[in-house]
Design a protein that fits this description.
Blueprint (H helix, E strand, L loop, with lengths): L6 H19 L18 E7 L2 E22 L4 E6 L6 E2 L4 E5 L2 H36 L5 H34 L1 E3 L4 E3 L9 E2 L5 E18 H13 L25 E5 L10 E6 L9 E8 L11 E18 L4 E3 L2 E7 L5 E5 L1 E6 L2 E6 L6 E5 L12 E4 L7 E2 L7 H10 L3
Parallel strand pairs: 1-20
Antiparallel strand pairs: 1-19, 1-21, 2-9, 2-13, 3-5, 3-8, 4-7, 5-6, 7-9, 9-12, 10-11, 10-13, 11-12, 13-18, 14-15, 15-16, 15-19, 17-18
Helix pairs in contact: 2-3
Length: 425
């Protein structure tokens, strides 16, 4: 049976066959280089060569801001609240008048106390005159000794009464001054608890509160496990904290009163607060409810960017790990046996290595066990190369990374030399 081909089918066949024909006619055409034995070439992967060096250590914890001073403003005397003298929510200086209590009653008390004081002063003057007359008469035996003693006693009693009246007068004047309630500290006021016309009593004397926001405090906690681990690393020399001595605890102050750590804050929107603070307090005992050490940092806040009650991320810096290794986050793989990395050996073959990690340093994992300086760690190319023993073509990882040594060949120099000598000529 004869098969008839249409022109369209013939054209399609020629189009598909054309590249094959051209390749056969042109033996010098470009072809991917063949691997050993004519197979596929080894996949290209990015690696870094590790080098031990000092790595900064940053602890990131959850904290909450609080005013460095928070004061309740209370009335010291009872009376009718006449007027509020400040704008709620504004900054005030220490001594700024905030409220005025009706002073009429206290003005009358001052007038009465001053009158009693004047009477007491007059009695003292009279007693002094009587004693002055009695003294020479008693010396000449013109009067009895009892009369002289009575004159002296009257003078002493009058002087004591004068002191009492002076104290009462001072108290009355002080109470009159207390009718004008002033700010005890500088800070930002809250809302007024009492409005004009309310009766202020001794049991209900709260008027408002003032919070000092410059400097600002940040309260957070350090877990007991973290403190124990850091203290052990400090004692063994695996961790350096400025101001600390070997064998000391990370929660103890040094001789100059410093705790050695610097503090930065990461705000809710992910931005980092521009000003740096310091750690100024750590508790000496563990909180039994949380199982952690309470801590506090102090930061300058002249612009009022920080507000009391904000939740922030506290980044404790200033510490470092001498002679430590770090790898990028993408180089670490989760396996059923824990964290592992792939190391490219001197024969350019992949070797899985279980590793132990201990925190972050500038976005990279710090590795405490499993790799050593000079190892080439696979960073990119896991899709193409993920089988142990697989031969790969290592190239340097271009991203800047602390602890990585740029190597244009992606392999140790001695390995490169051995490889070139073994290559067929």
């Amino acid at each position: 049976m004869t098969t008839t081909r249409t022109p369209s089918k013939i054209s399609s066949t020629l189009l598909f066959a054309l590249p094959v024909l051209l390749a056969a006619c042109n033996p010098t055409s470009d072809k991917p280089p063949a691997g050993p034995g004519g197979g596929m070439p080894p996949p290209e992967v990015s690696v870094i060569t590790l080098q031990a060096k000092a790595q900064p250590v940053v602890l990131e914890l959850v904290g909450q801001t609080a005013g460095s001073r928070e004061t309740e403003v209370r009335a010291r005397v009872a009376g009718i609240l006449q007027k509020r003298l400040f704008v709620e929510g504004t900054a005030v200086q220490a001594g700024t008048p905030l409220f005025q209590i009706d002073p009429a009653t206290f003005q009358n008390q001052v007038a009465s106390a001053e009158a009693n004081l004047a009477v007491a002063e007059a009695k003292v003057k009279q007693a002094r005159r009587d004693q002055a007359r009695a003294a020479p008469l008693a010396a000449e035996k013109a009067i009895s000794q009892k009369e002289a003693d009575d004159a002296q006693s009257a003078l002493e009693s009058a002087e004591a009464s004068l002191k009492q009246m002076q104290a009462q007068t001072n108290e009355a004047r002080l109470n009159l001054a207390y009718t004008k309630v002033v700010a005890p500290i500088a800070g930002v006021t809250s809302t007024a608890v009492k409005s004009d016309g309310n009766l202020i009593t001794a049991s209900d004397s709260l008027l408002t509160t003032i919070v000092q926001t410059n400097p600002m405090y940040v309260n957070f906690s350090l877990s007991e496990a973290d403190v124990l681990r850091m203290t052990q690393q400090l004692s063994s020399g695996q961790l350096n904290v400025p101001g600390s001595t070997s064998g000391s605890s990370v929660t103890k102050r040094s001789a100059n009163g410093s705790l050695g750590f610097t503090v930065k804050l990461k705000l809710a929107d992910g931005s980092v607060y521009a000003r740096e603070g310091k750690l100024n307090f750590t508790s000496e005992k563990v909180n039994p409810q949380t199982g952690s050490f309470e801590a506090r940092a102090e930061l300058p806040n002249p612009d009022g960017v920080l507000r009391p009650g904000q939740f922030v991320r506290v980044m404790l810096g200033g510490a470092s790990r001498p002679n430590s290794l770090s790898v990028p986050q993408r180089a670490v793989i989760d396996s059923p046996f824990g964290k592992i990395v792939f190391v490219v050996n001197k024969d350019d073959k992949l070797e899985p290595r279980p590793v132990e990690l201990d925190g972050w340093s500038q976005g990279d994992w710090i590795v405490t066990k499993g790799v050593q300086a000079g190892d080439r760690v696979l960073v990119e190319g896991f899709i193409k190369a993920h089988d142990p023993g697989m031969t790969v073509k290592p190239v340097p990882y271009l991203a800047a990374m602390p602890g990585a040594v740029p190597n244009p060949q992606g392999k140790p120099p001695e390995a490169s030399a051995n490889k070139s000598q073994a290559a067929p000529k």
